[in-house]
Amino acid sequence: MAAPTPVGTAKLEIDGVVHELPVVIGSQGERAIDISRLRAETGYITLDDGYGNTGSCVSDITYIDGENGILRYRGIAIEDLAEKRSSFVETAWLLMFGKLPNEEERTRFAALLSDNAALHHDMNKHFDAFPANGHPMAIMSSMINAMGTFHRPRIVDDETFLLAAARLLSRVRSIAAASYKASIGEPLIYPRPDLSYVRNLLHMMFSVPYNEFEPSHEASRALNLFFVLHADHEQNCSTSTVRMVASSKANLYAACSAGVSALWGPLHGGANMEVIQMLQRIQADGTSIPDIINQVKDKKSGVKLMGFGHRVYRNFDPRAKILKKAADDLLESMHVNDPLLPLAKELEEAALADDYFVERKLYPNVDFYSGIILRALGIPLDMFTVMFAIGRTPGWIANWKEVNDNPEQRIYRPRQIYTGAPDQLWVPRSQR
Ligand code: ACO
Fold first, then answer.
1. Cα separation of 161 and 398, whole Å?
2. Which residues are registered as beta bridge partners of 77?
3. What's residue 81's pLDDT?
4. Measured between alpha carbons, how far is 406 from 409 in angstroms, rounded to an integer?
5. Which residues contact 224 (CB under 8 A, 6 or more apart)?
6. Which ligand 1 atom lies nearest to the CA of residue 275?
7. Above 90 in pLDDT, residue 332?
8. Which pLDDT value is given to residue 6?
9. Ligand 1 centre and the CA of 305: distance in Å?
10. What is residue 2's predicted lDDT score, i.e. its pLDDT?
11. DSSP 73
12. For 140-166, what is each residue's pLDDT tens digit?
């Protein structure tokens, strides 16, 4: 990871004193004022609630140009990965190691994923202890963290990292399937070493001991694409969480377990579930599209158009474009007529023609159409964000590695501006 190139200085005047701050530039021309010496030199910190203007790190992994709707993993455009049908497994390697795997690397990684798919027998017992209706994101976060009690990851070089990464990437899939099986009271299905990553997940979710599930080619291709498009997205809420935890030198599983928790929220990965629930509500209540648009425009309603808007994209989200077409293709190939798809398109069209959305540059994000694909694949609503988490795991792992590999990495520790009570004395209980 190369340090960004200094290209000049910015001047900041405080109380009549001018301070010079280095201006640095990334490999794609994005500029930043390096304030790492600001407090030491001036006594001031910057205030940026929600980090909208803060570059929290330097990274080589993923590039986003939100103004132009560009997303690249290690320099490769996601449109290219989608068109060339890059597998999720090789995309994971690309994110973790910076280049697409050659045949030998890909075969070895696939074998490691197969060899490490089964959960430790004692881990399987945990599923019996969660309530049947417990949310699978809570189960996933707990189980990933619990993995650290069964396999303490000792990562000292690329080999030990690869084993820990393969174990995690393979087992998030087994954990997801097992939590689903537990929730519907079916026996756990063991992974099959002869199946690809995606087919194995569908097998563990939908096979039963007396009936092997055979997904169609189109179904596994669509789920592969879903995973590839979710694989990384630079410093989003969950990835920043993973990096934050990693910076304290916590292990890979602890950091990714925290990532799952951050992803769960409805403003982040939980939005894919919320979009479908919103569409279902509109359909059930018979609310008109103009009424919905008016509702989400009214701040007092507290309702948002789920699957719309993004902190970074102020133009279209390239993933949404690809997923919209993929939803069309999948439904057509499966001869599925999902009324939520035309409803979503109608809603998108109405929003994009409305000044409120135009002025605020709000476009459909990755979650707007992804749920339609997951529904067609038979994935239950509660599992939508779990699917996102499986897809995002390579990005979390790659970011954990980047933090861990950096010998100059300091612990993440932002500051704050305190606005609470001043100095106060402790009052005995009887006098309160
Ligand atoms: N519906 C209605 N209004 C919206 C929406 C929306 N979906 N998104 C943003 N706005 C409005 C805001 O109210 C704000 O209006 P204002 O300027 O009048 O105050 C303006 O657009 C700017 O939005 P912010 O909230 O400042 O945008 P922010 O970058 O903080 O939040 C977020 C981004 C969380 C994605 C937001 O757009 C949102 O809540 N969207 C719906 C939830 C969603 O789809 N989340 C998934 C995001 S993708 C992902 O994480 C995988």
1. 10
2. 72
3. 98
4. 5
5. 85, 87, 88, 197, 198
6. 44
7. yes
8. 87
9. 8
10. 76
11. E
12. 999 999 999 998 878 999 999 999 999
From CA 197, how far away is CA 352, in angstroms rounded? 37
Q: Which of 418, 405, 395 is nearest to 241 (CA)?
A: 395
Q: Which atom of ligand 1 is nearest to the CA of 368?
A: 44
The per-residue pLDDT for range 404-415, each reduced to its tens digit, is: 999 999 999 999
Q: Which two tokens stand for residue 61?
A: 């992994």
User: Smallest Cα–Cα separation from 153: which of 171, 178, 133, 131?
Assistant: 171
Q: How far apart are CA 152 and CA 180, in angstroms?
A: 26
**Using CA atoms, how far apart are residues 194 and 144, in angstroms rounded to an integer?**
24
Long-range contacts of 120-129 (CB under 8 A, 24+ apart): 120/150, 120/151, 122/150, 123/147, 123/150, 124/178, 124/188, 127/178, 127/179, 127/181, 127/182, 127/188, 128/182
Does ligand 1 lie within 6 Å of residue 314's CB atom?
no
CA of 315 relative to ligand 1 center, distance in Å = 13
Q: In this structure, what are the phi and psi dihedrals at residue 159, rounded to the nearest 5 degrees?
A: -65, -50
Q: Which of 57, 411, 414 is nearest to 248 (CA)?
A: 411
CB 58 within 8 A of CB 306: no
pLDDT grade for 170, boundaries at 50, 70 and 90: very high
142: three-class secondary structure by DSSP: helix
Q: Whose CA is nearest to atom 44 of ligand 1?
A: 307
Q: Residue 248 CA to chain centroid, in angstroms?
A: 21
Element (H, E) at 223: helix 217-230
- 5 pLDDT band, cuts 50/70/90, is confident
pLDDT at 135: 93
Q: Calculate how far, in angstroms, residue 231's C-alpha sits from the geometric centre of ligand 1.
A: 22
Q: Which residues are catalytic?
A: 310, 367
Residues in the chain: 432
Tokens (6 digits) for 341: 């798809």
Averaged confidence pLDDT in the chain: 95
